[in-house]
Design goal:
71 residues, alpha/beta, 6 strands, 14% helix, single chain, two-stranded antiparallel sheet
Amino acid sequence: LLEQGEALIPMEMKSARTVTPHFFAGLEYWRTRLGPSCRPGILIYGGDTPSTRHGMTVVPWKSLPRLSRLG
C-alpha cells in the first residue's frame, strides 16, 4: 500500500509479461477493505505496454521511475 496524504493506493507487482484478470484480485481485496480512503490500484508487471484495466493503472516495471506522477 502506498500512502498519499489520507488516501491509500494498493500496488501489486507480477513478473508475467501478459496481464490476466486474476492479477487484480489482491487489488480488489484492498479496495473493498479500505473503502473510500482507497484510490484505484496500480498493477506493475513484466510486459511493455501501459494501460488501464478494471479501473486500475497497469504499468510495465520499466516505468517505475514514473510512478510518482500517477497519484
